[in-house]
Design a protein that fits this description.
CATH architecture: 3-Layer(aba) Sandwich
Shape: globular
Number of domains: 1
Distance between the termini: 52 Å
Number of strands: 7
Strand order of the largest sheet: 3-2-1-4-5-7-6
CATH class: Alpha Beta
Largest sheet: 7 strands, mixed
Length: about 240
């Protein structure tokens, strides 16, 4: 068996091309046990969150959905189970190599998608917004590939509004998750993940970015007491 790749966490959060390289290296490192760690550290809530995201698309059967940062194919499998046609895109070769889905998979950059303009009915993305170099160009790229009336459903971590939950979540995400990652996968990668939340803009600013990119009916929904968030919107007709 080939040994797992190792990820070295930067001393400071990287930007630009250095961030792209760090994110690719991190996900290559955690790919072999990524699903296992996700199920354990979220108590399987990640399964429920993905199903809520897919349901929020409200698309007809056989609609084409592009799943960005598809990883090992969790969302692709759920999309196809509901009768939707899925195509996965991910930056990490390691993740794609570990994927468990029959959906077509493509290695690519979410800011420069190899997808024809106006060809998709929906776009999903699970917990990857903080790993992107820039969000406004990403939202603009989503608008480009979607047909008018197409839908997006974007999952991401969040900060609970309740002070007690916020404290508990901070301890769990900042201390327990890295320990689980160290035992089961790559400790350096799972120390980096909690720190990467600092990349996310304020919720109102992110909603405004999505609207400015060409979307309407932008909604932000907190999940499981606010430890995760679901952003949905509809591509405006032109």
């Amino acid at each position: 068996m080939r040994p797992m790749a190792k990820f070295t966490m930067p001393d400071t959060l990287p930007e630009g091309d250095a961030k792209v390289a760090a994110v690719r290296s991190m996900f290559d490192a955690v790919a072999p046990r990524y699903d296992l760690v996700n199920r354990i550290m979220t108590f399987r809530l990640d399964v429920r969150w993905r199903r809520l995201a897919i349901g929020s698309l409200a698309l007809r059967r056989d609609s084409l959905v592009v799943d960005l940062a598809c990883g090992t194919g969790d969302l692709c499998r759920e999309l196809e189970a509901t009768g939707l046609a899925a195509v996965g895109v991910d930056l990490s070769f390691g993740m794609l190599a570990a994927a468990r889905t029959d959906a077509p998979l493509v290695q690519g950059d979410a800011l420069r998608l190899p997808v024809r303009a106006g060809s998709a009915d929906g776009v999903t993305c699970g917990f990857a917004l903080r790993n992107l170099v820039e969000l406004p160009p990403f939202f603009a790229e989503l608008a480009r590939v979607l047909r008018p009336g197409g839908r997006i459903a974007l999952l991401e971590v969040a900060t609970p509004p309740n002070a007690v939950m916020r404290w508990g979540h901070g301890v769990y995400f900042g201390k327990v998750v890295p320990m689980i990652g160290r035992i089961l996968s790559d400790g350096s990668a799972y120390r980096y993940l909690p720190r990467s939340v600092a990349y996310l803009p304020e919720p109102d600013a992110m909603v405004a970015m999505i609207a400015a990119a060409g979307f309407t009916a932008v909604e932000r929904r907190l999940l499981s007491g606010g430890v995760a968030q679901l952003l949905t919107a509809t591509r405006r007709s032109t």
